[in-house]
Design brief:
By secondary structure, this protein is an alpha/beta fold. Helix content is 39%, strand content 20%.
Length: 220
């Protein structure tokens, strides 16, 4: 999990080189990776270590105080975002799985950052719609069911502060977005989302080849 590339176009050797020149993962991160790997094929949903390091740095650079995560899984991305927040920062994590987020809570507690995180176990749209209907979010990360991306985007953008960041993961979808033979529901949904995000005049955006594709948007 720490050496195999998350990106479909990277070799294992290049991924190992990247990892060797990025901040080393600590014992808490390594244990979380191993616990997630034990879940089987679904462990692919965990963000890669290099993407996690990027999330921490971007959170720090942006000066975010209030963050929101849609799709927490076993908590690696939440751990990384929370580490980038100041001591009085807050991250609202939204997920529907008690099992997966149970693993996350153990890691957050071990890392000493659980006081920064508010976990909401419920359908993510319900959780976001229950949030204040005004701009208060500095940084949001969408990494959940692909068919819900547009709906999440539309709920998050009005709640972003001016200059706030919205990140959408898996926007290259293992290269399927460019495969005309791939017309499954998730691939179709990601294509639709990418077009939606690119056409949203409320944000500036850039699509990057980080991990499985990451689009970063800044509210105008």
């Amino acid at each position: 999990m720490t050496t195999d590339p998350k990106s479909f176009f990277l070799t294992t050797e290049i991924q190992q080189y990247i990892n060797a020149h990025n901040p080393p993962i600590d014992t808490i991160q390594r244990n979380l990776i191993e616990k997630t790997r034990a879940l089987g094929p679904m462990s692919i949903m965990q963000v890669a270590p290099d993407q996690g390091a990027f999330l921490t740095l971007l959170t720090q650079i942006s000066g975010a105080q209030q963050a929101v995560e849609i799709g927490t899984f076993t908590g690696y991305s939440g751990l990384c975002i929370a580490r980038g927040l100041p001591e009085d920062g807050n991250l609202i994590c939204c997920d529907i799985s008690e099992e997966w987020t149970g693993i996350a809570k153990e890691a957050w507690e071990a890392a000493g950052i659980s006081h920064k995180i508010e976990l909401r176990v419920a359908p993510a749209l319900e959780s976001v719609r229950a949030m204040p209907d005004q701009p208060f979010i500095d940084l949001a990360f969408i990494d959940a069911d692909k068919t819900g991306y547009i709906a999440y985007h539309e709920e998050i953008v009005p709640r972003l502060r001016q200059g706030g960041l919205l990140l959408a993961d898996n926007v290259l979808w293992n290269g399927k977005v460019c495969d005309p033979a791939a017309n499954d529901e998730a691939t179709t949904a990601i294509r639709a989302y990418n077009a939606h995000a690119a056409g949203d005049k409320r944000v500036d955006h850039v699509m990057l080849t980080i991990a499985d594709g990451l689009t970063i948007m800044r509210k105008r």
